[in-house]
Amino acid sequence: MEESEDVPKDFVKLKCEKLSVDEVSEMVVSPYCGAVSLFIGTTRNNFEGKKVIHLEYEAYTSMAEAEIKKICRNVRQKWPSVKHIAVHHRLGVVPITEASVIIAVSSPHRAESLEAVMYCINTLKASVPIWKKEIYEDEYSWKENKECFWANSEK
Amino acid sequence: QVSVLYFARSAELAGLRCETLSVPQEITSLQLWEEIVKVHPRLAVIRDQVIFAVRQEYVLLGDQLLVLQPGDEVAIIPPISGG
């Protein structure tokens, strides 16, 4: 067994090209791991009865990458057996049914990677500076995640 | 002199994505917001929904005293919607 297989790695990428589930899951595969858990966020074609034509994402790229890396560090503190983590988020135009985010986590046994993936997507939605614009037939709307801690309309 | 970055709705209202602004070195986050709104009055409508990121750390609009260095990045952060 090579020494380099043992080093846990984080793979964080923001890109405009189509995301690949094969590519992201292959990044986290490890001979020491019996589980790879995946989350894929895909674009829905409707919101409150309106037809969504496509989504557009923008990001404060340098800070978004830093915040995602913080999430990876937190994952490793909470689930020390996690081996590799990959988070790919698409920017720019994302057509309906295509993936806007893919998260993959590997661990020796399945509980940790399943929990870690859920933690990653929930925390990403609460803290990573990325914005989504939904384009409808004759208007558009900047979305707001309910997880966003400063956007309480009750203020 | 700090770099102010605008995103999403705030970039639409301000009409630009980044600019350099001269502000006092010590300033509260609320005062910083008010300086920015003087330059871009249309931003006033989102005051209750935004926070700042100063040197890539989130800062609420309020009494928190910021100590800014020349070239620091200050970003206007509307409610996020990643994922």
UniProtKB/TrEMBL annotation, chain A:
Decide whether keyword Coiled coil is in the record. Answer: no
Molecular function terms from GO: molybdopterin synthase activity
Q: What is this protein called?
A: MOC2B synthase
InterPro entries for this protein: MoaE_sf, MOCS2B_euk, Mopterin_biosynth_MoaE
GO CC annotation: what is one? Answer: molybdopterin synthase complex
> Which GO BP annotation is one of this protein's?
Mo-molybdopterin cofactor biosynthetic process
**One Pfam family for this entry, by name?**
MoaE
Source domain of life: Eukaryota
Keyword list (alphabetical) reads: Cytoplasm, Molybdenum cofactor biosynthesis, Transferase
What SUPFAM superfamilies does this protein map onto?
Answer: Molybdopterin synthase subunit MoaE
From TrEMBL, chain B:
The UniProt keyword set, sorted, is: Cytoplasm, Molybdenum cofactor biosynthesis, Nucleotide-binding, Phosphoprotein
Q: Per the UniProt entry, what is one GO biological process?
A: Mo-molybdopterin cofactor biosynthetic process
Q: Name one GO cellular component term.
A: molybdopterin adenylyltransferase complex
Does the keyword Cytoplasm feature in the UniProt annotation? yes
One Pfam family, short name: ThiS
Q: In which pathway does it act?
A: Cofactor biosynthesis; molybdopterin biosynthesis
Question: Which GO terms fall under molecular function for this chain's record?
Answer: nucleotide binding
Q: Which domain of life is it from?
A: Eukaryota
Q: Which residues cross the membrane?
A: none
Could you confirm whether the keyword Secreted appears in this record?
Answer: no
What protein name does the entry list? MOC2A synthase
What organism is the protein native to?
Hippolais icterina (icterine warbler)
